[in-house]
Design goal:
60 residues, mainly alpha, 75% helix, rod-shaped
Length: 60
Amino acid sequence: MPPSSSTPIIKPPSPRQQSWGTIISLVIIILMIIVGALYAWGKRVAEERALIEQLESQQF
């Protein structure tokens, strides 16, 4: 059945568009991993500081 005139013809993305999509996706994933790692590291540092302050206050 031939396509009707109201049906848009969708072309597949060109290889250049596909490569940019892949690069952008990888950059977003890497940034999310970095942000998550920094968040976890900051949380750990805050917990260690709280523990050190608690130990120091118990010594006096």
